[in-house]
Design brief:
Helix content: 10-25%
Distance between the termini: 28 Å
Structural class: alpha+beta
Radius of gyration: 14 Å
Bound molecules: zinc ion
Oligomer: single chain
Number of domains: 1
Number of strands: 10
Length: 124
């Protein structure tokens, strides 16, 4: 399965590089999501617009408009609470704040890249 890097203003604000991570539940090792991490540094929060897979989750998150639409992120396998809703005020972006040591990550290679602006131009 190949995933496409979504490069947008937030990616650029973090230096322009991105990586894919497979996120696993630390308790039961269930593979839960694939997430695009923009830029360097520790993975502290998961922005709703950077979830890559599974598709059902991506679509569900796409419909969330306010923090009150969100609920705690639980492992679908064992039910462990992994992350809690937050608003990243600096960028006015909804995100999940990861709880300490609840989520493991494994890097995925990123085979495809595109710029959001280019996609918009194609649509026009
Ligand atoms: Zn679990």
């Amino acid at each position: 399965m190949k995933y496409i890097v979504k490069k947008d203003k937030f990616t650029k604000a973090r230096g322009g590089n991105a990586k894919f991570y497979i996120l696993l539940c630390a308790q039961c090792r269930h593979e839960i999501f694939i997430y695009q991490k923009d830029g360097p540094g520790k993975l502290l929060r998961l922005y709703l617009d950077k979830f890559v897979a599974p598709k059902s989750v991506v679509e569900e998150l796409h419909n969330i408009k306010t923090k009150s639409d969100m609920h705690g992120l639980q492992c679908p396998s064992c039910g462990e609470l992994l992350a809690v809703p937050m608003m990243y005020e600096k960028e006015k972006r909804l995100a999940y704040r990861l709880l300490n040591n609840k989520v493991l990550k494994r890097e995925e290679q990123s085979p495809l890249e595109y710029e959001l602006t280019e996609i918009k131009q194609i649509k026009n």
